[in-house]
Amino acid sequence: MECIVECLFLLFSLNGITGQSVPVKPTRLTHWEVTPQTVRLTWNAGDSEVIVQYRPKDDPGAEWIETRPKSEEFTVRRLQPFTVYQFRVVPVNVYGQGQASDIIEVRTGELGLFIDNNRNNMVKN
């Protein structure tokens, strides 16, 4: 009888029935500051750690570049000016990776311009 209880608990744990499972999909991935070489992102992933992934949209062979930020706000650096990038956030915990956020596309600024979505304006830099 003891084996049956332990085996059922193990089976339920592996299927996430005990409430322990991969994290849920992050929400509200947005950008709010764009320069020629940086994009600042924010999102909501609850208590989950995340992997920020990005790649140039127009490069068909481009693989996702990954970084692990420490908070729900991160500035991606060393981007190419006036290039469209795709961004997504993948939640991760001890049980694995959850579903990635929806992809957002952001064009980096032209050299000499800075876009601040908080103020809805362009500023020369």
TrEMBL record:
Q: Which UniProt keywords apply?
A: Disulfide bond, Signal
Q: Fibronectin type-III domain: from which residue to which, for each copy?
A: 25-111
Give the highest taxon in the source lineage: Eukaryota
Entries under InterPro entries matching the protein: FN3_dom, FN3_sf, Ig-like_fold
Q: Does the keyword Ribosomal protein apply?
A: no
Q: Which positions make up the signal peptide?
A: 1-19
Per UniProt, what is one Pfam family of this protein? fn3
SUPFAM superfamilies reported for this sequence: Fibronectin type III
The name on file for this protein is Fibronectin type-III domain-containing protein
- Which PANTHER family has this protein been placed in? CONTACTIN, PROTEIN SIDEKICK
Biological process (GO) annotations held by this record are: cell-cell adhesion
Q: Which GO terms describe its cellular component?
A: membrane
